[in-house]
Design a protein that fits this description.
single chain, about 400 residues, mainly alpha, GMP Synthetase, Chain A, domain 3, three-stranded mixed beta sheet, two-stranded parallel ribbon, 7 strands, about 70% helix, rod-shaped
Length: about 400
């Protein structure tokens, strides 16, 4: 409700037993402890399961629970402003039912009203300025308007849409020309003496306008500072996201390197197991080679001994003269080998020596290959030990 009467003092809120129409006092003037959803339940505006859903949605979409309640059609804007007023222990004003004094509303500019989402609605009997706000926790709104109006401000809570509606009507009231009275009242006004000038009131008005301009300038500077702060906040948010991304990238690299090192460690362990198997195989081959070498040496010694005995026997037979009267001499002469047979025996002995030499050479080659393989295995073992040391240092 809008009143455009000049000089109206506004409702006597403090002295009336019942509040004026449109004003609802809080049940806890000192404010409530707790949260907004608890006040919604206490006022009976919604059921608990519905409020719990709104709380969960506000966390998911990262928006205030009040916006979720109004956007979801659970509460109206008026009910939400009533909940906010109850939460902070302030009066709630329904600007559609309360009689707003436009002369009081004109104490601040339309720009300031839109900036702070606030509008003065009346003066209390004690001279305090009754200020309807959409956000009662805004510390600048109350202090700035108190400076603009040079008045003690008594905050009240109203919905943002109702405040905008009053500001729009205030625009209409400011731009509407004043219609002069007609008839007898006009004639009596013409015959009456002109009203005396009030220089002090004009000086106060000029001083108030000047102060208002200063305050508006300060408000614009404050808006610039807020914009700069918002830019810094956005920049910090960007930097924070970059740091988080870099941290995630570093963690990914570290995890990849750790997985790679674990793979290398597993590969080294497998190589170590294979090396131990190869070492055991080399040891078995060495034992077998040594056995074969000993066997070859024994066979060669026995063969050489047999050949030596045969040669001694042949030389003994050659030195012995054949005596026909000696019993058995004829038989020995008969048994004596011919030179051709002895040559054949020598040739066979040479072949046997060559075969033994070849077998011994092969055995020596096998032994040399085994030694080279042992050297390779030892080198691999040294590399594995170095890799294990590197892994230990990395850990």
């Amino acid at each position: 409700m809008i009143s455009d009467g000049v000089g109206t003092a506004g409702p006597d809120v403090a002295l009336m037993e019942t509040p004026p129409a449109g004003i609802t006092p809080p049940s806890h003037p000192g404010g409530r402890g707790g949260f907004l959803d608890e006040v919604v339940l206490d006022l009976g505006y919604a059921e608990k399961k519905t409020v719990d859903w709104a709380v969960e949605q506000s966390r998911i979409v990262e928006r205030p629970i009040g916006d979720v309640l109004v956007g979801g059609g659970i509460l109206t804007e008026g009910q939400l402003s009533r909940v906010i007023a109850e939460l902070h222990g302030l009066d709630h004003v329904d600007l559609g039912a309360f009689e707003v004094d436009l002369d009081v509303a004109r104490l601040i500019s339309r720009q300031a009203a839109r900036r702070y989402k606030a509008v003065p609605v009346a003066f209390a009997p004690d001279g305090a300025l009754m200020l309807a706000l959409a956000d009662p926790v805004d510390p600048l709104a109350v202090s700035d308007i108190a400076v603009m109006t040079r008045s003690e401000v008594r905050p009240m809570v109203a919905s943002a849409s109702e405040i905008d509606s009053v500001v729009e009507q205030l625009d209409d009231a400011v731009t509407r020309p004043v219609e002069p009275d007609v008839g007898a009242d006009a004639e009596s006004a013409a015959e009456a003496d002109p009203p005396a000038s009030e220089p002090h009131s004009e000086e106060l008005a000029a001083e108030r306008d000047a102060l208002r301009k200063v305050v508006e300038g300060l408000a614009e500077e404050l808006d610039a500072v807020r914009a700069e702060a918002d830019g810094r906040t956005e920049e910090l948010g960007t930097l924070r996201k970059a740091v988080v991304a870099r941290t995630a990238e570093r963690d990914a690299l570290l995890n990849g390197r750790r997985a790679e090192l674990q793979g290398e460690r597993a590969e080294i362990e497998r190589s170590r197991a294979g090396l131990q198997g190869e070492r055991a195989e080399v040891q078995r081959e060495r034992t077998e080679l040594e056995g074969r070498q000993a066997e070859i040496d024994r066979e060669r010694i026995e063969s050489l001994r047999a050949d030596l005995d045969q040669e001694r026997e042949e030389r003994d037979d050659e030195r012995t003269e054949v005596d026909p009267s000696t019993p058995g001499t004829a038989e020995r002469a008969t048994r004596a080998a011919t030179p051709e047979e002895r040559d054949a025996d020598r040739e066979e002995l040479g072949s046997l020596e060559l075969a033994l030499g070849a077998e011994l050479a092969r055995a020596l080659d096998d032994n040399e290959r085994l030694e080279r393989r042992i050297i390779t295995v030892l080198a691999s073992a040294a590399e594995i030990s170095a890799a294990r040391g590197k892994l230990a240092r990395l850990d």
